Amino acid sequence: MTQKSVASSVYEWVDERLGLSELVAFARHKTVPVHSQTFWYYWGGISLFLFLVQCFTGVLLLVYYRPGAEAYESVRQITFVMHFGWLIRSAHSWSANLMIFSIMVHMFSVFFMKAYRKPREFGWLSGMALLGLASVFGFSGYLLPMDELSYFATKVGLQIPVAIPFVGAAIANMLRGGPEVSEFTVQRFFALHVVVLPALFLPLLGFHLWLVQRHGNAAPPSVEALPPEQRKSMPFMPNFLRKDLAMWLISLNILALLASVFPWTLGKPFDSLAPAPAGIHPEWYFMSPFEMLKLLGFVFSGKYAEFGEIAGILLFSLGIMLWVLIPFYDTRKPTGQRARATHYFGLLAIFALLATTILGYWTIR
Question: Which domains does the chain have, with CATH numbers?
Fold first, then answer.
C-alpha cells in the first residue's frame, strides 16, 4: 500500500466519523468580499493568532511559575536560569500587548464598516466582551512577576475602581485580598489569569467565531449599495485562507523581532515600604481612563476632587455603554442621519483615546 493510499484511508476513516468533507465543502463555498477595505478583514485572524501564542507560551511559563511569596524568584529563574525562558516570557508579554492592539484595530474597522448592523449585533456584542476580557487578562498578568514596576503599577491601576461610588473600595479590597497589594493579590490574580478568564474567554471566542462563519464578512455600506453583479468576492479556501496565514506569518516575524531585540525586562523585587518610583503608570490600554481621572481631578481640585474622580468614571462608563449599544441606534439607511452621527462618534472616540493616552505619557513624571 502506497503512502498516498494510506493517507486517503486515514482521511476517509476520520471523515466518516467527524464529517470533515462537510467542513471543507462549507469553506470552499464561503466567499469574502473584495474591495478597497479588504485589508481590515485580516485583523480578526491576527488577534486569534496572537491569542494562540498567548496560550502556548502561557502553558510553558505555567510549568515554572510559582504564585504567592515566591512569584518574583520563580520569574527570575525563568528569565535568567531556564534555557530560552527569557524568550518565552518576552514573547508572552509582547503578544499580550499586540493582541489587545489588534483587537482594538479590528473593533474600529468593524465599527466604520458598520459590520454591527442586522444580523450581526451579537457579533459586535461578543467582540466587545472579548476586548474587555482581554484587557483584564493583561491587567491580571501584569502583576504576576511581582517586581517593583508591576507592584506599583497595579496599585495605581486599582485606584480606578476605588473612584466608583459606594462599591469602589469594596471591589478594590476584594481584588487585592486586603487593603494593600500583597502575595494574596498575586494568588488571586493568578487564579483569575489562568482559570477564571480562560473559562469565560474560550466559550465566548467560539461563539464569536461561529457567528462570523454564520453571517460572513460584512462589506462597507458603499459596497453593499452596488448592484450584485458589480460586487467582487474571493473564495475563503484557499484564496483568503492563504492570505490570512501569510498575515499570521508576518505577525509571527514581528513578534519574534520584538521579543528578541527588545526582551521584556525584570525589575528589582518590590518593597512595599519604599516610595513609588518616578513615572509609574498603568499599561497603555488603561492610560486613557487613568488620565481622564487625573484631568477631572485637576479641574475639580480641593474639596471637589472626589467629585472629579466620580465624574471621570461616569463619563468613561457612559462612553463605553454608548459604544457597546451602537448597533441598536444605527439601524437605518447606510447614508442616513444616524449613520453620519455614528461616524462622527467613532472619530470622536479615536481622538479622545489617542489624546488622553498621549497626554498621559507626556505628563509622566
Answer: 26-265 (1.20.810.10)
Quick one: DSSP state of residue 65? -
d(CA 147, CA 264): 12
State the chain's maximal CA–CA distance in angstroms. 86
For 332, counting Cβ atoms within 10 Å of its Cβ (0-12 exposed, 13-18 middle, 19+ buried), the class is: exposed
Per-residue pLDDT band for 363 (boundaries 50, 70, 90) equals confident
Residue 219's nearest CA partner among 99, 292, 120, 342 is 120
> Per-residue pLDDT averaged across 178-200, rounded?
92
- Report yes or no: 346 and 108 within 8 Å, Cβ to Cβ: yes
Sign of CA dihedral 344, 284, 311, 127: positive
pLDDT tens-digit series, residues 108-133? 999 999 999 989 999 999 999 999 99
pLDDT, tens digit, 9 for 90 and up, residues 53-76:
999 999 999 999 999 889 999 999
Q: Let me know how long the chain is.
A: 365
Alpha-carbon distance of 32 to 23, in angstroms, equals: 17
| Opening angle at CA 220, ends 214 and 222, nearest 5 | 135
* 331: enclosing H helix or E strand: none
Which residue, 142, 154, 145, 160, is CA-closest to 180? Answer: 154
